[in-house]
Structures are given as structure tokens and as C-alpha cells.
Write a sequence for this structure.
């Protein structure tokens, strides 16, 4: 299988090449030349597979330049009960992603049992093992340059710490993550981890990363690699839990493999729900993909109106679901590529304006008419909404949910379909946003014993202005 750029001016690449490369040389994002299909027979065969075996089946659809035996070893090494051990009481530790019923036909897929208590661990742990494997096979090294709004950074650093041949430079918005999120990242003392706090919003961090990747000479000289969801391997790893969630929510139903299902996904950078779009394109029976935003509702505006209008730093809100405080969704380009019939010329035209700080409007175009065929609906949630939802779920189920998951639960309730199970994808464990949980419930969330007092540990971080050249100079000096 070969991978092509959404902008059409890059030579098709193999999986291991795009794994290490991040953005395509023309500034686009990689996607497979066509989506592999999953048959009804395969759905039936995969239904009872444990998570590592299911991951292997899906990875084999996308990866043909890693031997099957090695790919199996990587999947088995990644998805273990020892790694995903932070499950709630009463859950099966071997399940990796337990499904909890909130109401009849309404479920929560728990994705935050990994080392950093966020769904990002589901893909990042695999990415760390893939990087180490491919680099060792090629005798190469890599410098990871990434941006985080809260959870990607810690997940990447915990996945990459101590990995041979890997150094991580992680940018985060200065002072805008929760204390727990900052402590998870900044308290790491590993020599191959460099934290950089940028005076600005997440979008400023992401713009700096893109500027570095769009400098071919710099990227080549310092062997830059990506762990953000611009990296295709992150997306394909996330596809796995859509299949797992589908099987779990339809298990025991009559004609289970023909049943339609809906997923609701908290969305900022569009990576998580992009994986759902790809699962649907592969043939997973998804009736509806419900996109939930917070007050930064750029994506909700698009799916309601057809207008994509990214906002600048000054117009991006700081909210109590900070990992979604994003106004430029980098993975959105992958979906638009599919929406416009995989025509890179159209993508280039649309993103010429977006990259220059503008917007685009699909109203009145054939693409607007096609939009409904992809199964997306959307909604937004506010601070008051998420507090009310956290209280409601606690009152009814004695279950604490984090702020981002609360956004999704609120929006999911507005988009239920009769007879179609709804699965909300959990974002993180509540302790990562303890201040808001305390405000909502009057009690502090629990945390794993090994993370007690993490906020009191010494922290190591470099604070910098939102200046791409300054960050590039720091990378050059460190390397």
C-alpha cells in the first residue's frame, strides 16, 4: 500500500517512510491511495478477538512493509493489561477499553486506562514502539517536534522516554493546561525529553511545528518526525477502538454484524473523529459520527453551515475543557480531501486561503450536497453545560467523567437515533481536570497511587515566545 498527500505534489510513500516523515513535503497530510475494505465475514471473525489481535488485523490492512510476525510482536507488546492498568474498579483489566452503559443504548467507551490517563495513550504507545523498531532497523535517529493542548504531550513523552534514537521537543501553551497535565510533562527528567512552553495558544504551537516541517532543509538536517495526529500511524491506531467499540456495543444483538451504531467524539484537532470517518469508509456500519466541540466551535460551525472559519489566538477561548481549545483543526484537511472527491487541486485552493489566515465556504457547491453522505452531525457544549453533565452522570451512575467527555455526553444526547446504540468516546480520567470536577461535585477525583503528589515534583520547562525561528534555533542548539 502506498500513501499520497492531500495536496498531490508528493511522491507516494510506504508506511514506514511516512511514519518517520510527518507532513508530506508539499505541506499536505498523508492518506492511503484507497481505503482497505472490511468484509462482513471479517467483521464476524474479528468480533471476539482480544484487543492486540484486533489491532493486528487492522494494522495489516494498512502496513505491508513490516513483516507480519514483527507487527504482531509490536501489537502484543503495546496492548497489555500492564500498560493499560488504570481502569475503574470492577472493570476487566484485560479488556483494555471497557464499555460502560450510561443508559439503555447509550454507552461510554473507556479509553483512558493508559500511563497518562488519556485516550492519546491508545495510539501513542504503539507509535513509540513503531518508532523504535523502524529506527533500529534502519540505523537512524529522529527528533520529534510536536505540539500539545494538554494530553498529546504527556502521552508522547511517556511513550518515547528512554527510546533509543529518539529525542522529543514538545511545545505547549504556557499556563493554559491543567496543573496535573503540566506536571505530567514538565516533571519528566529524561534526557531525551525537552518541554517548551509557548506564550500563546495551542494554535500558535501548532503553527510553529508546521513552519519547521515546511522548511525542507531544516527538517532533513535535524531529522524531524511527528507524533501529533498529522502522523498517519496515530490515526490508524485509533481506528482500532472504533471496531472494538462497535463489537462491544452490539454484542448479543440479533444480526449484530449488520447493526448500525453511532459514535460521539469530543473534537478539537479532528484526529480522533477522523479515525471514525476512516473506519466508516472501511465498511464499519457507522450510522452517525457526532462531533462535539466546546466554546471553540469552528468545526461545529462547518458541519452546520459549510463554512470553515479558523480563528486567531485572540478569538480562541480558554475553557474548562482545554484540550479542545483549538481553532485550526490540522486533521480536517484529510476529511475535506475525501469530501471533494480526493481532488488535491481543490484542497490546495481551499488551504491556500486557510494557510494565509482565511476561510472557505462550501455553501452552494456540489460538495455541500455530498456532506450529509459522510454521516457527520455536530453540536457544542459550554462551561455551564459540562458542569451540569458531570453532575448528572455522577448523580445517576456514580461515575465521574472529565470535562471533555462531558461535552460529548451532552452533545450525544441531542443526536440519538431510535434503535441505534450511541457510544461516547472517553477523553481522559477526571483527575486531569480536578479543579472543574471539584467545582461541579464538591469533591476531588481519585488518582492512581503512583501519581499522588505529581504536582509537587520539580519541573523542567523552557518558556519561549511564539516564534518559529527561535524554536528552530533551540532544536539546532540541542542537537
Amino acid at each position: 500500500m502506498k500513501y499520497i498527500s492531500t495536496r498531490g505534489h508528493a511522491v507516494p510513500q510506504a508506511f514506514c517512510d511516512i511514519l518517520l516523515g510527518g507532513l508530506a513535503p508539499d505541506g499536505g497530510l498523508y492518506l492511503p491511495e484507497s481505503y482497505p475494505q472490511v468484509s462482513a465475514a471479517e467483521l464476524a471473525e474479528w468480533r471476539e478477538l482480544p484487543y492486540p489481535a484486533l489491532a493486528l488485523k487492522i494494522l495489516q490492512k494498512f502496513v505491508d512493509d513490516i513483516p507480519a510476525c514483527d507487527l504482531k510482536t509490536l501489537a502484543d507488546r503495546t496492548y497489555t493489561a500492564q500498560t493499560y492498568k488504570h481502569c475503574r474498579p470492577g472493570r476487566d483489566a484485560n479488556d483494555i477499553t471497557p464499555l460502560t452503559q450510561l443508559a439503555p443504548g447509550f454507552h461510554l467507551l473507556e479509553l483512558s486506562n493508559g500511563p497518562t490517563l488519556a485516550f492519546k495513550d491508545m495510539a501513542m504507545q504503539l507509535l513509540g514502539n513503531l518508532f523504535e523498531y523502524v529506527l533500529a532497523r534502519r540505523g537512524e535517529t529522529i527528533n520529534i517536534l510536536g505540539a500539545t493542548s494538554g494530553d498529546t504531550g504527556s502521552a508522547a513523552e511517556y511513550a518515547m522516554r528512554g527510546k533509543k534514537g529518539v529525542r522529543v521537543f514538545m511545545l505547549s501553551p504556557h499556563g493554559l493546561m491543567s496543573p496535573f497535565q503540566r506536571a505530567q510533562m514538565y516533571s519528566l527528567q529524561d534526557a531525551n525529553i525537552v518541554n517548551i512552553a509557548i506564550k500563546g495558544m495551542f494554535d500558535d504551537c501548532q503553527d510553529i511545528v508546521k513552519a519547521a516541517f515546511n522548511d525542507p532543509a531544516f527538517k532533513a538536517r535535524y531529522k524531524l518526525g511527528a507524533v501529533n495526529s498529522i502522523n498517519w500511524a496515530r490515526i490508524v491506531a485509533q481506528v482500532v477502538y472504533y471496531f472494538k467499540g462497535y463489537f462491544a456495543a452490539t454484542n448479543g444483538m440479533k444480526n449484530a454484524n449488520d447493526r448500525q451504531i453511532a459514535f460521539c467524539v469530543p473534537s478539537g484537532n479532528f484526529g480522533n473523529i477522523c479515525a471514525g470517518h476512516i473506519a466508516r469508509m472501511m465498511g464499519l456500519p457507522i450510522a452517525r459520527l457526532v462531533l462535539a466541540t466546546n466554546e471553540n466551535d469552528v468545526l461545529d460551525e462547518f458541519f452546520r453551515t459549510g463554512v470553515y472559519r479558523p480563528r486567531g489566538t485572540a478569538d480562541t477561548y480558554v475553557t474548562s475543557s482545554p484540550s479542545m481549545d483549538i481553532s485550526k483543526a490540522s486533521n480536517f484537511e484529510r476529511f475535506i480531501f475525501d469530501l471533494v472527491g480526493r481532488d488535491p487541486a481543490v484542497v490546495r485552493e481551499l488551504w491556500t486561503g486557510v494557510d494565509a489566515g482565511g476561510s472557505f465556504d462550501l455553501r452552494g457547491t456540489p460538495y455541500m450536497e455530498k456532506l450529509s453522505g459522510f454521516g457527520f452531525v455536530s453540536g457544542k457544549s459550554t462551561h455551564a453545560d459540562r458542569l451540569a453533565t458531570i453532575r448528572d452522570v455522577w448523580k445517576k451512575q456514580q461515575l465521574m467523567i472529565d470535562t471533555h467527555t462531558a461535552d460529548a455526553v451532552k452533545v450525544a444526547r441531542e443526536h440519538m437515533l431510535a434503535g441505534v446504540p450511541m457510544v461516547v468516546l472517553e477523553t481522559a480520567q477526571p483527575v486531569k481536570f480536578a479543579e472543574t470536577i471539584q467545582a461541579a461535585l464538591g469533591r476531588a477525583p481519585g488518582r492512581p497511587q503512583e501519581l499522588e503528589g505529581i504536582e509537587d515534583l520539580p519541573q523542567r520547562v523552557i518558556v519561549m515566545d511564539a516564534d518559529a525561528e527561535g524554536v528552530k534555533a533551540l532544536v539546532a542548539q540541542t542537537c
